[in-house]
Write a structure and sequence with these properties.
Elements lengths: L21 H12 L9 H4 L12 E2 L1 H14 L2 H4 L3 E3 L16 E7 L8 E3 L3 E7 L3 E5 L2 E4 L5 E4 L5 E5 L6 E7 L1 H6 L5 E3 L13 H6 L20 E2 L1 H12 L10 E4 L14 E7 L8 E3 L3 E7 L1 E6 L2 E6 L3 E4 L5 E5 L6 E7 L1 H6 L5 E3 L12
Antiparallel strand pairs: 1-19, 2-3, 3-10, 4-11, 5-8, 5-10, 6-7, 6-9, 8-12, 13-14, 14-21, 15-22, 16-19, 16-21, 17-18, 17-20
Amino acid sequence: MAKPRENYREDVAGRANVEDTPELLAYYDELDTYNAGALWTVANKIEPWEPKSDSVPVLWRYRDLRSHVLRSVDLVTPEKAGRRVIYLNNPGRTDVAAAVGWIYAGLQVMHPGERASAHRHSASAVRFIMEGSGAYTVVDGHKMTLGANDFVLTPNGTWHEHAVESSGTPCIWQDGLDIPLVNALEANFYEVHPDLSQAVTYAVDDMTKTWGNPGLTPNGGNWSKGYSPMFKYEWAPTYEALGRYAECTDGSPFDGVLMEYVNPASNGPVMKTMGASMQMLRPGERTRAHRHTGSYLYHVSKGRGHSIINGQRFDWQERDIFCVPSWAWHEHANASDTEDACLFCLNDLPVMRSLGLYREEAFGDNGGHQPVVA
């Protein structure tokens, strides 16, 4: 007897609308035996009218997670864990351990004198420093010292390791990787350095000093790799640039004063699969609602406020992390009338743009505000 099946019929011209019959159900069962199927039985499911993200909006409060992150220090060592990280697990993406969409994220902690072994992988990675002093990263022999709100790249295929100087303090940073995407493409490789560590072969912070001068390119500074040579983007000049830009622009009605981190050699994204931005919400500013394709993971770098995502309000403060799934309505508001707020955003915009899949839409006729669902 033919087994009943889930039916995705839609009574709309141009959409699949085939009624089940005993004969068709038996036919579908026969196709199953050949590892095949009839497109019209799933077409409306796999070709939705608009994106339907499995991810849900989530706010990870730092004050809730911090003690649990620190507790991991007493439970596992970097040598045993590989990397001591508490990852952010979106309820709709637990199957791939993603924070949102195809982006993985976690909070890594290291104590003074600790070092994680050098390794490399096909996945691209970033770090956003949250607290502590004395942390550093070594990428292909380039050592970068790390401070709060610094943004650091460890591009795919590069040897990298992380550590905290013995004179430092406990350090916590946010990791962000495209692991789910690379795994979905079945292209992920992982290697541990044969010596478990790498030599520092360049001057400390040389890449930022070489490439981080606005409007200037180093003499002979040819760079042809698919990621930015400026492995570290420091917080102080980033915040200063936002402030200068805010003096001469009204900003975006949807994003406030927003600037993208770029590859200084190409003016393109910092890496091929992940992009990043920093935006400023001026005192009392509230943006209008919009939505766009792509997944977005926000990190509150400064200030406090709230975001409304698909009608749900999330109140945030410094060091909190929240996500906006693809095609979700969202808007942001600064809670202070005297201080600005800044949001770091890790996203998959380079993928959306390079594949011609980016699309954006304002809420209402002119981009109004969403009603909050109680």
